[in-house]
Amino acid sequence: xxxxxxxxxxxxxxxxxxxxxxxxxxxxxxxxxxxxxxxxxxxxxxxxxxxxxxxxxxxxxxxxxxxxxxxxxxxxxxxxxxxxxxxxxxxxxxxxxxxxxxxxxxxxxxxxxxxxxxxxxxxxxxxxxxxxxxxxxxxxxxxxxxxxxxxxxxxxxxxxxxxxxxxxxxxxxxxxxxxxxxxxxxxxxxxxxxxxxxxxxxxxxxxxxxxxxxxxxxxxxxxxxxxxxxxxxxxxxxxxxxxxxxxxxxxxxxxxxxxxxxxxxxxxxxxxxxxxxxxxxxxxxxxxxxxxxxxxxxxxxxxxxxxxxxxxxxxxxxxxxxxxxxxxxxxxxxxxxxxxxxxxxxxxxxxxxxxxxxxxxxxxxxxxxxxxxxxxxxxxxxxxxxxxxxxxxxxxxxxxxxxxxxxxxxxxxxxxx
Length: 417
Prior knowledge:
- A hairpin with a 5-residue loop joins strand 10 and strand 11.
- The chain contains 11 helices and 18 strands.
- Helices cover 27% and strands 22% of the residues.
- By secondary structure, the chain is α/β, with parallel strands linked by helices.
- It folds into 2 domains: 3-317, Alpha-Beta Barrel (TIM Barrel); 320-416, Golgi alpha-mannosidase II (Immunoglobulin-like, Sandwich), CATH 2.60.40.1180.
C-alpha cells in the first residue's frame, strides 16, 4: 500500500468533539424501572405484552428532574448524556405524535420527557444523545411484516430529528437481533445526515461483536461491558471513534436488589483504560421508577468528578501515545508537547503504625520517548519527581513517590514537559 493508503484519516469535527468529551452518562429508564429487575424484565419473566403494557398506567415520572440529572453529569466531569428515548419494550419517552399511544405523553406523566432532557442538557452545557432501539417487542409487524416495521422505525427516528433542535447523536441498539436482514440503513442514516448533519451515528454491535465496524456512516464503534482495544485506523476511508459502555452493577435498568456494584477504583481504571485506547467511557445509571438517580450511583458519580478535578487535563486532552509503560502503566500525548504518565498500584507512605500495604512506589520505566524532558511532576500536587532519561534509546525512568497519608488516587498521573 502507498503512504496515502496507510494514512490515518482526519476525524470529522463532530467526531473530534466527541472524543474530547471523553466521559458520558448512559441512562436506562422506562416502564421496566417500576419493576426494579432490569430493563429486560419483560422477556426474562415472560410477561405477556398486554400485562406489561399496563405499566404505562402507573408511569408518573414524578421524581424525574432532567436539569438535576444534567447537573449531576456535569459535576461528574461528563460532557454528554445518552438517554433511552425508546428501549426494546417499545415505550417512548418522547411524544410519538400519532404513531402510537405507547409513550410518556399518554401516561400519567403526561409530558414529553425527551424534550425536558434535551432542554436541560443544553442549559447545563451537556451534549444530548438519544438512544433508540431498533428491535421492538411491542410491534406485531416486527415479526410479521418487517418492511412495515422499518417504515415505523424510520418515522420514529425522524420525529427525534425534527422536533428537538440540534441533538448530539443517535445511539441505536438491536440490529444484532436480526443480523441477516436488510435494515435499510442507507435510508435511515441518510435521513439523519440530512436533518441532523452534526449528530453522531452509533449502532451498538453487542456483547459478542465488540469493536466491529459496521455501516460506513457509523461514527463510533461500541464496546459493551468490555474494555476497548486500540484501533488501527491506517488506511480507513473515514476516522471512526470508539466508546465503551458499562453498568455500575449488573443491570442497565434499575435492579432494586442488585448489590453487585463495581468499586470506585474499577470505574476510575475503566475510564483510564478507555483513554489509553483512545475511546470514550459511557457509564450507566438506572434511575428509580420515578426517574431519580439512586443515591449510591449519584455518590459514585460525585467521586468520579472529584478525581477528574485533579486529573481531567490528562483525560480530556490525552491521546494514545507510542510511549509505553510496564504492567498496567501507560502514557498519553497531551497538548503543547506534554506527555502524561498513568501509574497504577502506588501505595500510601507514612508512619508504620497507621499505614498498611506499603510499597508500590519506586522506579517506573517507560520506553519510546525520544524527545528531551525538562521536568516531571505529579498532576494532582505539582510535586517534582526525579527521573533519568536517555533520548537516544527512548528509555525514561521515573521515581514515583507513594501517596502521602490521607491520599490514594487509584491511578496517579505525572505530567512530563
